[in-house]
């Protein structure tokens, strides 16, 4: 039986409990996107079949089929990949009862203007790592959250960002190529199509023309989105950070240069955490690994057992000398 993580569902897991496949809350949007792709492919094949040359017809259909399966694979792979779900904390284990209400009111831990704010998620009851975000639609915290994509029905984050870029690029190129393949026969039959011919094939061709115009426009748009996404990657920015212009007036501490940023983006990220719900045993080790991944940060924690105030000083990021990061619980 699928295990729920917020509004998401874990479809499968490895023997140690690590997430292998998940399903977002708006899974029906993935089905709708798949249906649109299938309809577009069928219309493309119908138009291609009107070619006179058997060789050209066969080559075009094989080419269109190749892109069709590539787009479907990239969509389904993106929609079922863990975007970077952060295990929730069990407040009954990790947080004292008298401290719970105080913690619920905490928003930001770091009040130092020269540092980086680390916030607490009052739903998941965890300290959110840098660049993470709690998605209200998925109802879970996502590492290096980029955005919630409605067409795939879930978030784009640390572990599926590469697949999102591949989906954008594949769909954009496939849409443009499909439109180009349909163009010659549509031009050849344009007179019959628009001069009152009511045959079934010409009716289908009329639908194909408007669909092709939409597909071409969508392909151009997706190519532009792909380029914009790649530019963000080259600066080590997420879509959220880019839209909110977080680093417009201050240097981006995560920017390691275009070459290193690209290397980090295309590198293999660690597998999903083994425990969907963190019971507190390995929380320090888990969050230490998360913080190190964003800038080779070394954490040293000091806890005062007699007070509800806790401070964690984090050493400067590599290539980041604008001040330490501090966590405060008030």
From TrEMBL:
It holds the Pfam family DHHC. One of its GO terms (biological process) is protein targeting to membrane. Its EC number is 2.3.1.225. It is found in: Endomembrane system. Keywords: Acyltransferase, Lipoprotein, Membrane, Palmitate, Transferase, Transmembrane, Transmembrane helix. The chain crosses the membrane at residues 27-49, 55-79, 164-187, 207-231. It catalyses: L-cysteinyl-[protein] + hexadecanoyl-CoA = S-hexadecanoyl-L-cysteinyl-[protein] + CoA. It is an enzyme of class 2 (transferase). It is a multi-pass membrane protein. InterPro entries: Palmitoyltrfase_DHHC, PFA4/ZDH16/20/ERF2-like. One of its GO terms (cellular component) is endoplasmic reticulum. GO terms for molecular function: protein-cysteine S-palmitoyltransferase activity. Its main location: membrane. Residues 118-244 form the Palmitoyltransferase DHHC domain. Belongs to the DHHC palmitoyltransferase family. The DHHC domain is required for palmitoyltransferase activity. This is Palmitoyltransferase. The lineage of its organism: Eukaryota, Sar, Alveolata, Ciliophora, Intramacronucleata.
